[in-house]
Amino acid sequence: MITSLQNPLVKQLRKLQRAKERRNQRLMLLEGTHLVEEACAAGMPLVTACHTTAWQQTYPQLWSVLMQRAIRVELVSEEVLQAIATTVHPDGVVATAERTLGSAQFMSPTRAVQLGVALETIQDPGNLGAVIRTAAAVGVDGLWLSVNSVDLDHPKVLRASAGQWFRLPMTVSGDLSRDLQMLKLQGVQLVATVPTATLTYWQVDFTRPTVVLLGNEGGGLSSALLTLSDVAVKIPLAAGIESLNVAIAAALVLYEARRQQSFTEVLPR
User: Fold this and answer.
1) All domains of the chain in start order, with CATH
2) Hey, which bits of the chain come out as E strands?
3) CB burial class (10 A; 0-12, 13-18, 19+) of residue 186?
4) Considering just the CA atoms, what is the radius of gyration of the chain in Å?
5) How far is CA 184 from CA 77, 187, 228, 247, in A?
6) Residues 93, 34 contacting (CB under 8 angstroms)
7) Read out DSSP for 63-118?
8) How far is it, in rounded angstroms, from Cα 112 to Cα 107?
9) Taking a C-beta distance cutoff of 8 angstroms, is the pair 194, 220 a contact?
10) pTM for the full model?
11) Helix/strand number for the chain, H first, E second
12) Cα separation of 156 and 132, whole Å?
């Protein structure tokens, strides 16, 4: 059992709490039973897994999976696990995985898109994780994230996604305008969410292939993406309300789009 905070592995894993170190080590930090379980279920190879005695006794089946899935599995003290984790009350297990392996996030450029979502300058990891969770629930074909957003593999993003991070095709776009322009050339409609738009989101035809564009609450979408979009829509708000959480906005528009698309799928030919 590892009990010392000065252990080289412990020092290495503690560094992963910082974005720079996650990039340098090319590792992502998976915290908690549910997230580790979802990673294993999605077939994601794990590099290291650290767990406490109590956790092993509570989850013997998942521990057996970790022994097969992870390159290295270590029993650690409660104090060590607390030091590794970013959460205040970790539940007994933390694992790492390579950033470039085992995730659906690396989406093929030629992937067919019936419904997708593009996010620009999203800064709150909880919001991003919630959008990912919603997008996966809706069954979108892909998610594009601008490079100036919060890290896609931020620990809080992973946790807020409730494990759906591993199941949703995603990509971090170095040039979101270029990537969206390529989608337009493939016949995909770009629908921008804008508070001042004339149309409400349920007045748009979502039966054609569509990518919904969302910006952060403070700045909204850039002028470049607004210019590129085919249609702008708004979500009606009561007087005195400035904006909705981006995850709520995404849920409303994406579910309306899926409702329309599902309705057409069952119409008689």
Assistant:
1) 8-98 (3.30.1330.30), 115-266 (3.40.1280.10)
2) 27-31, 46-51, 70-75, 93-98, 115-120, 142-146, 170-173, 189-193, 199-200, 210-215, 231-234
3) exposed
4) 20
5) 53, 5, 9, 24
6) no
7) HHHHHHHEEEEEEB-HHHHHHH-SSSS--SEEEEEETTSS-TTS--TT---SEEEE
8) 11
9) yes
10) 0.89
11) 11, 11
12) 12
Question: How many CA atoms within 13 Å lie on the side-chain side of 97?
Answer: 25
The pair of three-digit structure tokens given for residue 170, joined into one six-digit string: 């995603």
Structure tokens at 211: 């990518």
Q: Are 135 and 115 in contact (CB under 8 A)?
A: no
- Residue-wise pLDDT tens for the chain (269 aa)? 999 999 999 999 999 999 999 999 999 999 999 999 999 998 888 999 999 999 999 999 999 999 999 999 999 999 999 999 999 899 999 999 998 633 444 455 556 899 999 999 999 999 999 999 999 999 999 999 999 999 999 999 999 999 999 989 999 999 999 999 999 999 999 999 998 899 999 999 999 999 999 998 778 899 999 999 999 999 998 888 777 889 999 999 999 999 999 865 544 44
